[in-house]
Design a protein that fits this description.
Elements lengths: L10 E7 L10 H13 L9 H4 L8 H4 L5 E8 L3 E8 L4 H8 L1 H10 L12 E5 L2 H12 L15 E2 L1 H5 L9 H4 L5 H23 L1
Antiparallel strand pairs: 1-3, 1-4, 2-3, 2-5
Length: about 210
């Protein structure tokens, strides 16, 4: 439940899963489309249909490179049946507008698979990230969410921003606030693995 307003400059964990635990990513095309949505819908100006823009290759990058962005993505993980995002709004109502735009993924999914109705389990959930330690550990949780305790991906139909942190690869995230607190990508990876193992152990203890 959202019991707060999203304040520019603050950080938030945004997450949701498929309705009735259904999968929201069924193949590689769906995964690429979700990532494309994260990029193209992050624009103050409306962009219209990603499908229609796909026939105009020169316009596909315009919203993400020239238009004013609604949010900054710090970390993400897209799984077959749920997603996690760490966001900070750059404008008033930035997160709200961005997540409204993300409904375009539902339209794409329903059209592709000839279905109707909601795809996600109600409105997205959010939690305010109140301090730096929470941000570091939650960032690790999100980056490792599609991996086992050793850092190995558990499915080919998922993707996280872990490589952007560990290999300094250019991507869609603003990693600086977290990455600058570590000497290099290797040190961050060790931290992320340890934090992820801790979260798995706590989860196991709760299930005993």
């Amino acid at each position: 439940m959202r019991k707060h307003e999203f304040v520019p400059g603050e950080y938030y964990h945004i997450y949701n899963r498929g309705t009735e635990k259904r999968k929201i990513i069924l193949d590689r095309q769906d995964l690429e489309r979700f990532i494309r949505s994260l990029i193209e819908f992050n624009s103050l100006e409306p962009i219209g249909s990603i499908y229609e823009l796909s026939f105009q290759a020169d316009k596909l990058s315009t919203p993400s490179t020239k238009s004013k962005k609604l949010i900054s993505i710090v970390a993400y993980c897209i799984n077959p049946n749920h997603f996690h995002l760490i966001l900070t709004p750059l404008l008033e109502k930035g997160i709200e507008k961005f997540m409204q735009r993300m409904a375009g993924y539902t339209r794409y999914f329903n059209e592709k698979y000839k279905r109707d109705g909601v795809l996600f389990q109600g409105k997205y959930k959010s939690k305010h990230i109140s301090d730096n330690n929470y941000l570091l550990r939650l960032g690790a949780y999100v980056n490792m969410n599609n991996r086992d305790e050793f850092g190995t991906p558990t499915t080919k139909f998922s993707k996280s921003s872990l490589e952007e942190y560990c290999k300094n690869e250019k991507g869609i995230c603003s990693c600086k606030i977290i990455r600058d607190q570590f000497k290099n990508g290797k040190e961050y990876l060790e931290f992320a693995k340890e934090a992820w193992r801790d979260s798995l152990e706590r989860k196991a203890m709760l299930e005993i």
